[in-house]
Amino acid sequence: MQRHVTSALETWLLKEYGGLIDSATTAKVLGYRNVNALAKARSRGALAVPMVRIPNRRGWWTTPQALAGYLASLESKSALSAMKARAMDG
Prior knowledge:
Arc Repressor Mutant, subunit A, 3-stranded antiparallel sheet
């Protein structure tokens, strides 16, 4: 199921933002307040999405594949937590 979720997210991100996603868009998608908050998380090592610098371009960038993979992993962790909670209740 995670593969399907990743694929759907990746397709949407690719259509919506193109092959490279900038820091401002990444911050928005991940729910950070602004680019500075994303930069601080990245510098602290708290950002699980790989971001790179591209020669002759400003800022940090990620790919739809990397962002979709991270978002899908959150979904699967959430589903696993819900299943564990249900198992403990029942």
